[in-house]
Amino acid sequence: MADITLLHLAVRRLVGMAAVMLIVVSIVFIIVRIAPGDPAAVMLGPEATGADVAALRTAWGLDRPLAVQYLAYLGQLARGDLGRSIFLDRPVLTALQERAEPTLLLSLIAIAIALAIALPTGIAAALQPGSAFDQTVMALCMGAASLPTFWLGLVLIELFAVRWGLLPASGYDAPGASILYRLEHLILPATTLGLASAALVTRYTRAGMLDVLREDYVRTARAKGLGERRVVLRHALTTAALPILTVVGLTIAALVSGAVVTETVFGLPGVGSLVISAVLRRDYPLIQGALLVVAMLYVLINFAIDMLCLVLDPRLRT
Amino acid sequence: MRRRHLVWIGLVLLIAVTLAVACAPWLTPYSPSRLSIANRLQPPSGRWWFGTDDFGRDVFTRVLYGGRVSLLVGASVVAMATGLGVGLGLLAGYIRRLDAPIARLLDAMMAFPDILLAIALLAALGASAGNVVAALTIVYAPRLARVVRVATMIIRELPYVEAARAIGATTPRILLKHVLRNLVSPILVQGSFIFAHAMLAEAGLSFLGIGISPEVATWGTMISAGKGYLDRAPWLMLFPGMAIILAVLSLQLIGDGLRDVLDPRLGKEV
């Protein structure tokens, strides 16, 4: 019975996700076409001849009706083809894959740093709400949430690279660099991004824990005479894990935004800096592809987290 | 009680920043654009409080004048995103037929990371202050629309709205007079957060070189210009950054405090 409900819900969410994805694709399709003037002419720049522009328009199908272009775009995506980068002259998917490593490593280490800071701090703050510790944590979180990520990165460079010479500020992609060398170059960027995300996750961890700690079964557990440690770790945290997990999913969007800027600050050759250079060169297929991949990942990750919550917490299945 | 203090502290900070920026000509004897190569890259001192930049311009003066653009961009984004977001949210929340399509559209918009969506929009529109405002409006309006939509759905079912409908009030009248009036507090709370995020995003976009033109002094472009002088003149990026933090912090204090004051249920949480 319960499994049928779960399956039913899963199918409904899947349909909802498909609808959202179709709209995401449509938005990406529209964005390039809101450009004032002819995108082909804009992309090729002022030196291009009329024949060049016409050739690109034909290659891109820009001379066909909008509805036809849209269907062709959907068909192309269905085949897993994200188009061809104008400037790099290779498939967009290949270009993104080549740059994926630093971005993925940066994001993963940043999440790890954020969680390592946020979970213990948020839980400790929730255990003594209103205390001096709690208020300090909350104040720090608000301060951290007011920092521009790129500025924090520059301050860390100034301190750790320029002033104290402890860590490298750039140079991730030196030829023949070992993985250790590359990881060393990720310490400062990942710390920058991790600190920025830690503020958000701490606040939600604290809020989630506070909610759970007020529940009857936690009181029961305490009344049974269980130690505070066991109450918090075994009883409260397992329940609070769900809202925390949800927040981590939502933080991914903020993390990607942060990664774009952080990569630029530290000169990391990732997807973010690829997008920025694509914007400066007006390489629309590349911008379109990157935007689509990131949004799709976000939708998929949040769908997965949503399903995980449904599986873990039967109360959500009503 | 304490939460109310936070709102006041935030308001005082915000007013102080706004006044300082607005009264720039009376607060500083220097011009934000006059070059003075002899005085380039001077460290902070009694004469130049925040030091001078690579063209010998007074950084304190430029922080004040640059704040005008940064605050103006933030305020414009809030105004326009509020208009668009409230409109969409009211329609989706009140008119059932429109709810599903608008809600899906909002979900899809929220799937794009804010800076990345703004980057793509600016790539299409071209970089300028006006287009930064337009792009950030499109990025942040859905956030407000989501909140307004949910609040409207709750208000729609309240007896007094039903009563208004029963005595023959038209839909626009109900929306404006009865629904919107009760949405003021969530809109204020979200508005202050959007203001804060928009200022951070503008600074980020300008830093990346795809927002406001580097010739215009904003807090973002100043940090970007100071990036190349980290080893010799860190004050170039330090002070505009602190100005951003001050402004954003004041807005977060207002938003956070207001939320707790207006919604006592959440008083002890986030």
Can you give a write-up of this model?
The complex is a heterodimer of chains A (about 325) and B (about 270). By secondary structure, chain A is mostly helical. Chain A folds into 2 domains: about 1-80; about 100-315, MetI-like (MetI-like fold), CATH 1.10.3720.10. Chain A has 13 helices and 2 strands, in the order H-H-H-H-E-E-H-H-H-H-H-H-H-H-H. Chain A has helices spanning about 1-35, 40-45, 50-60, 65-80, 90-125, 130-145, 150-165, 180-185, 185-215, 215-225, 230-265, 270-280, 285-310; strands at about 85, 90. Chain A has a two-stranded antiparallel sheet with strand order 1-2. In chain A, helix 9 runs antiparallel to helix 11. The longest helix of chain A has about 40 residues, at about 230-265. Chain A is globular and about 80 Å long. In chain B, helix 3 packs antiparallel against helix 4. Chain B has helices at about 1-20, 25, 60-95, 95-110, 115-125, 130-155, 160-165, 170-180, 185-210, 220-225, 235-260. Chain B contains 11 helices and no strands. Chain B starts with a helix and ends in an 8-residue tail after the last helix. With about 270 residues, chain B is mainly α. Chain B has a single domain (about 5-20, about 50-270), classed as MetI-like (MetI-like fold, Orthogonal Bundle). The longest helix of chain B is centred in the first third of the chain and has 36 residues, at about 60-95. Residues about 265-270 of chain B have low confidence and may be disordered.
User: How many structural domains can be distinguished in the coordinates of chain B?
Assistant: 1
The CATH class label of the largest domain in chain A is Mainly Alpha
- Based on the structure given, which CATH architecture of the largest domain in chain A is correct? Orthogonal Bundle
Tally of DSSP helical segments of chain A:
13
CATH superfamily of chain B: MetI-like
Overall, the morphology of chain A is: globular
Query: Regarding quaternary structure, how should these chains be classified?
Result: heterodimer
- Kindly estimate the percentage of residues of chain B that lie in beta strands according to DSSP: under 5%
Q: Mean pLDDT of chain A, rounded to whole units? A: 84
The CATH class of chain B is identified as: Mainly Alpha
| Total E-strand runs of chain A | 2
Q: Biggest interface, and residues per chain?
A: A-B, 61 and 49 residues
Distance between the termini of chain B: 16 Å
In CATH, what is the homologous superfamily of the largest domain in chain A? Answer: MetI-like
Q: Gyration radius of chain A, to the nearest Å?
A: 24 Å
